[in-house]
Amino acid sequence: MKESFIPNSKSTSIFFSDNTEGLPNDIKTRFLNHLEYSLIKDNTTVEPWDIYFALALSLRDRLIERWLRTQYEYRKRDVKKTYYLSMEFLIGRLLGNSLINLDLYNESYDMLKEMGYSLEDIAELEPDMGLGNGGLGRLAACFLDSMATSAYPGYGYGIRYEFGIFRQEIVHGYQTEIPDHWRKNGCPWEIKRPEITYRVRFGGKVKAMKQNGSGTVYRWIDTEDVMAVAWDIPVPGYKVDNVNNLRLWEATATDEFDFEYFNSGDYIKAVEQKNISENISKVLYPNDNIHLGKVLRLKQEYFFVSATLQDIFFNWKQDHDSFANLPEKVSIQLNDTHPALAIPEMLRILIDEERMDFESAWQITKQVFSYTNHTILPEALERWSVALFEELLPRHLMLIYQINDYVMQEVSAKYPGDIIKMRNVSIIEEGHEKSLRMAQLCFHGSHTVNGVAKLHTEILRHKIFADLDQLYPGRLCNVTNGITPRLWLLTCNPLLASLISEHIGSAWTRELERLRGLEAYLDDQDFKESFFEIKEINKKRLSRYIYRETGIRTRTDSIFYVQVKRMHEYKRQLLNVMGTIAQYQRIKANPDQDFVPRTVIFAGKAAPGYYLAKRLIKLINNLGDIINKDPDVKDRLKVVFLPNYCVSLAEKIIPAADVSEQISTAGFEASGTGNMKFALNGALTLGTLDGANVEMAEEIGIENMFIFGLKAEEVSQIKHSNYNPYSYYESDPELKAVVDSLLDDSWCPREPGIFAPIWKVLMEDGDRYLQMADFRAFMEASDRVDQLYQNRDEWVKKAIINIARIGKFSSDRAIREYAEKIWKIEPLQLDIGG
């Protein structure tokens, strides 16, 4: 082992801030100093944004002190570390969570109040970080929080997107995508590290060179290069001194501009290469319906794993002379297939740069990586054309072929003559366009593969990866997803969190299973009244927001049915729409009948190239325009679409929800985490037995949920028995009326025919997600919701049961399982003080 630069001493004198003379430690002094010296503001020029920025910088100071010591201790003790690679980290806002984690919320609240500011208003100024879109990124953010809180040495790695995915606006009912300038005023949490910059290469060619005694050596030459510059965001744990790190890569050009072009007057050409390079980290998930979009997306995926692997190897070589024990100290988790190229990239580094033979390099690589699968949808299991790899990553294509040859030899030896099994496990997929299957690459190149819910893992084992599971028995396991209670209750629903802590103590914030203690209060009338009052307060808060954003007035005594998630057909927002249309038609047919009032709330973004999902957003908005203004309805049904769904909006919606709609087709949702967040805040689930809903029903009790519809095995059976949506259409008059309204322009009188494609999906394209088959069960379950809601005492009791029994679904538990079953790392809780 090389000599470490770390002093062999218990002294921490290497830290500047150990000499605290003249360095303020109280939050107020730091805050005022940042206002004056960092932002250059005084009482006559200060704006509310400056208050936010100075407060965030003051908190960051505290975080940096702990961050430096945490990294020092991790390195000094040479602990095994986990590196979590994800294309998304949907962090949201950091101010509130950081104040709570650092136990500075009350002090900061009082400080700002003295100055005439409201902490809640200041916190609202913070933009959501544009680093993610859906559940994949939110899960990654929860996991970072839990790794730090549980004191596991863990690092996140991703891309520093300039614009995130997009900002969603609704114009005449249509989704419009505009750039999300989340960093236009600066971000106080991130720290640029220009000294940590790596070269990432694309294109070029591979040159084979014979070397005496070492066989053939490959050199990747004539490449087009970009630079990856590191930006760090400290990740604090809750009531621990550990502060882990999220490192994001920004793409920059190797040269800012070409002087030769500039001097000749071609100013556009002079900066062309800079613009092309920086496109890599501009936007999350470029539209890959076109070839250039596919090229950019593949560049993004390789860019971030190449920079990450170079960074890991650079740090490794600072303190180690050999790679033989790399798996004993390094664990790399691939969050879905987007970082799959890390596997051939590690091989390339070990073989081409460190001169290791393939067999040794492959064994080390397999022992380092683990892979989480998040989908069973065939179209979501990434495939890349071989032609595109030949163009962008020729050396990696060679290595993937070498991996595949190695694997095929193993398969031939174990299953001689079984061509079907060889085809199913092969990374190379033959067809009209030869392609590379990233899921197969991840399965072969990892020591452990996990699903994210029991049902999901069983589907992977028996259907999606059946042959791979047989080839590598024991490699596939389950780790059910979880959420962080610090954000999804303590921060977003402080009144409910306080009520819970008053009755059972605050240990639940780190041991969510402690919520079981709430069952002692199921018959406590005062507790139930307090719970109901808090729900009403949260509903009023959301109603004010809805009115401010959409102009729609909602009744807080109505049932808030909520479905907020990424727009996708399998999530079945369309089934929810169909149920809403049916309820409207019931009211129109019986205007004097006593209906339980409903407010149906939707939110979610559709991918820019996802035509049908975008058309469904238009349908929801048109429904709202017609239903909300119909005098016959008399406020007994409202339809709301809230634009630009993000973490901070979820923090407003989830505490106010009465009903959590988790209605995906059984067998299609991997897990879901929104279901857990809603239950934690006392919403009752209206859902199918899909994803983590299955385990939630086991924990909470199916009698405390509204479960409906086909089970996963029934879905499979019906799909293999010539499913005919017309039979449901013809036998159910209410369903027929709903479907007909999509075609007769009831919802689009000024734009005839615009919803015909949605009708076609149901009636002519086979209704892939069985909305017709589940419609009647969905309506009956909704009726049960209405019936129970009229019995307030029983409703509140079931809501409290949902909270009390959701403890299993903490990300702390999930991270503990990853650490023990997959990563084999130990917690290292630090006592830094200060």
Number of helices: 34
Largest sheet: 9 strands, mixed
In one word, what is the shape? Answer: globular
Distance between the termini: 34 Å
Helix/sheet category: alpha/beta
The tally of beta strands, per DSSP, is 22
- Mean pLDDT over the residues: 93
Which band does the percent of strand residues land in? 5-15%
Spatial strand arrangement across the major sheet: 5-8-9-2-1-10-11-15-16
Q: In which range does the helix fraction lie?
A: 40-55%
Q: Evaluate the radius of gyration.
A: 28 Å
Low-confidence runs: 1-13, 15-23
What is the gist of this entry?
This protein is an alpha/beta fold. It is globular.
Walk me through this protein's architecture:
Helices cover 47% and strands 15% of the residues. With 834 residues, the chain is an alpha/beta fold. A 9-stranded mixed sheet has the order 5-8-9-2-1-10-11-15-16. Strands 19-18-17-20-21-22 form a 6-stranded parallel sheet, with helices on both faces. A 3-stranded antiparallel sheet has the order 12-14-13. Strand 20, helix 26 and strand 21 form a beta-alpha-beta unit. Helix 30 crosses helix 31 (756-763). The longest helix is centred in the first third of the chain and has 29 residues, at 48-76. The protein starts with 26 loop residues before the first helix and ends in an 11-residue tail after the last helix.
